[in-house]
Amino acid sequence: MQPLFVELPLSAQTAYAQLLEASLGAEHVRSVADLSGSFNAKKVKGRKYWYFQYTEPSGKLHQVYVGPDTAAVHRLMERKADPGASAALAPLARAALALGCAAVLPRHYRVLRRLADYGFFQAGGLLIRTHAFLAYGNMLGVRWGGSDRTQDIDFAHAGKAVSLLLPGTIEARTDDAITSLGMGFLPVAGLGGKTGGAWLIPNEPEFRLDFLTPRHRGTDKPFVHPQLGVTLQPLPFMEYSLQGVEQAVLPSAEGAVLVNLPDPARYALHKVLIAGEREGAFRVKARKDLAQAAHLLAALWQWRRESLAEALDDLLSRGRGWQSRFRRGARALLEGWPELEAAPMLVAHGASEA
To answer: φ, ψ for residue 225 (rounded to 5)?
Structure first.
């Protein structure tokens, strides 16, 4: 049987760590020189002052005071002619890929990069599902065995249900970001003809963007998030996986993009939980959920066992409904992957109970 994961060589793990550090640094040192706009001079009482004019992703025109006509201001203006901080990430990203890190597909990178540029992740957005799973591999220093890729890209936000301890004052126009890609994405209409939480390309329906949020107060109605500027589709149990956020970097031959991910232990156990919820035609989806869970649990058992135990205790403390669903999912997981080293933990917490 193919192993669930293979540990990446130390050189690849080091390259990823360097890329993550550089990406975090680039995010923190962004200045007007990294924005798309132009410098303009004004004379006030005979003295020359410089301003920078740019358009926010939301479409709002802004003018920022830079400073008087000094050598320091001219150095900043010269830097504007050079690539921004993010451009310097491309060589590091290519090095990480050459050493064995997993790459995000080019057009998927383009979508993620555009959303990042429009402030989606800074406003608290998270990457979930397939692309989060890809990112977890690089983060944990492993290459997943036998995992399939899909064409869709899935995002989440805590919405009204959970506080993520992420910046709360940043606004993003996610719908404008998607439209600006020029790839043909259109919003999918939900019930009543209103915009739902998904976008797709009509002639490529498998390439879609889904925006999800925890279900609150028992309603399934899409939630229009004012900070993100996009409609979110509520799903049950999602609040558990969004309590705890980690940052990761996704490399591409074109560069790298810094994203937010759910805590990997909570993500894996949430997959087991929702697999216990799926029935009938959704069994194929349940199998994919359990496959991701098995891969992640195998790696987390090696390197993050304590956080896995804490996340499991929290899940099972949420009541009988959560417990019964988790047990159904865990039994299916152990039937499909009986060699899983994390099995004793799941059994000890009642996975084998009726």
So the answer is: -90, 120
Query: How many residues make up the chain in this entry?
Result: 354
- Residues 340 and 206: their CA atoms lie apart, in Å, by 32
| Residue 258 token pair | 């810094």
The residue type of 192 is G
CA-based torsion, 281, 285, 287, 289: positive or negative: negative
Tens-digit pLDDT profile for residues 343-352: 888 877 656 5
Which helix (DSSP H) or strand (DSSP E) does residue 189 occupy?
strand 186-189
- 172: which residues sit within 8 A by CB, 6+ positions away? 57, 115, 118, 119, 120, 122, 123, 125, 227, 228, 229
Closest by alpha carbon to 102, among 24, 21, 23, 13? 13
Q: Are 48 and 41 in contact (CB under 8 A)?
A: yes
For residue 44, the 8-state DSSP code is E
Tens-place pLDDT, residues 15-69: 999 999 988 878 765 655 556 677 888 887 788 888 877 766 556 676 766 777 8
